[in-house]
TrEMBL record:
Keywords: Lyase. The lineage of its organism: Bacteria, Pseudomonadati, Bacteroidota, Cytophagia, Cytophagales. PANTHER family: DIHYDRODIPICOLINATE SYNTHASE (PTHR12128). InterPro entries: Aldolase_TIM, DapA-like. GO terms for molecular function: 4-hydroxy-tetrahydrodipicolinate synthase activity; 5-dehydro-4-deoxyglucarate dehydratase activity; N-acetylneuraminate lyase activity. This is Dihydrodipicolinate synthase family protein. Belongs to the DapA family. SMART domains: DHDPS. Its EC number is 4.1.3.3, 4.2.1.41, 4.3.3.7. It comes from the Bacteria. It holds the Pfam family DHDPS. CDD domains: DHDPS-like (cd00408).
Length: 296
């Protein structure tokens, strides 16, 4: 598994009646692949995983693996409240041909450090798939500390970290402690270039769903040392990237996909499509960004 590059956390596409829209999903998936992304992540927050049925998740995983056909790795996110459910999805991901897993700490129950470490080790020891730990204490209220990663280092297939603590210095802290033992991927759009400059080797991205070419170009320019060129695109991108750090990031990013012609704004309840002043405000950000889109 090469934990390097831009990994879109793709949205799940729905018809107006709420059923899966696989044709539109594949249209966006092809847009991502044609733009040069390095992997695909299914079933994250943007994928509205908590509102999907087991069969829908299986369908999405199976059909994505088939459609991608080995061009890039397909990663399945696991965000469960029970260890047995996490084990089910780890086994199912392997059965369906996924390339790896992204795993959050236990959901809903506020597990302590011993419980979180045991949870991750239990899943890791039950699968041969490579694993990225999703460390997001802001949204999910559990911090995976440096000391916890010290304990997890014995599991060879725990290989990467989606760094979403929103503390840029944590990239340096982890590198100082572990060297290249863990691959670090930025998980917060508004800090992506900063973390790439500090040593992250990847970007688990949100606005990439609507703007993949710009996202991949920023990543590539940073890798090539063309920092000033990357800054210009990143500064244009920032107002759009800020849509990723709001509780309604799903609605915001889906509206951006709609305006870019690669998605729809249909969401699954309890989420609702945007209306009124909020919709007008977010559309202004999106349409202003599109009108000023840089030439790459």
């Amino acid at each position: 598994m090469n934990w390097y590059g831009v990994f879109p956390a793709v949205t799940t596409k729905f018809h107006p009646d709420g059923s899966l829209d696989m044709d539109l999903f594949f249209k966006n998936l092809d847009f991502q692949l044609d733009s040069g992304v390095h992997g695909i992540i299914l079933g994250g927050t943007l994928g509205e995983s908590s509102a999907l049925t087991t069969e829908e998740k299986i369908t999405l995983t199976r059909e994505t693996v088939k459609h991608v056909n080995g061009k890039v790795p397909v990663i399945l996110n696991i965000a469960e409240g029970a260890t047995q459910e996490a084990l089910f999805w780890a086994a199912k991901a392997e059965e369906l041909g996924a390339s790896g897993l992204m795993i959050l700490p236990p959901m809903r129950y506020a597990a302590d450090a011993r419980e979180v470490v045991t949870y991750f080790k239990t899943v890791a020891n039950a699968t041969s798939l490579p694993i990225m730990i999703y460390n997001n204490p802001i949204d999910y209220k559990t911090l995976v500390t440096v000391e916890m990663f010290e304990e997890l280092a014995e599991c060879e297939n725990i290989q990467a970290i989606k760094e979403s603590t929103r503390d840029i210095s944590n990239v340096t802290r982890m590198i100082n402690r572990f060297g290249d033992r863990y691959k670090i991927l930025c998980g917060v759009d508004t800090l992506a270039m900063e973390e790439l400059l500090m040593g992250s080797c990847g970007w688990v991205a949100g606005l990439v769903c609507a703007f993949p070419k710009e996202t991949v170009t920023i990543f590539n320019l940073v890798q090539e040392g063309k920092i000033e060129e990357a800054k210009k695109i990143y500064r244009w991108f920032l107002p759009l990237l800020e849509l990723d750090i709001h509780p309604k990031l799903v609605q915001y990013i889906k509206l951006a996909e709609h305006h870019c012609g690669v998605g729809s704004e249909h969401v699954r309840a309890p989420r609702l499509a945007l209306i009124g002043e909020e919709r007008e405000r977010i559309e202004r950000v999106i349409t202003d960004g599109i009108s000023k889109r840089p030439k790459l």
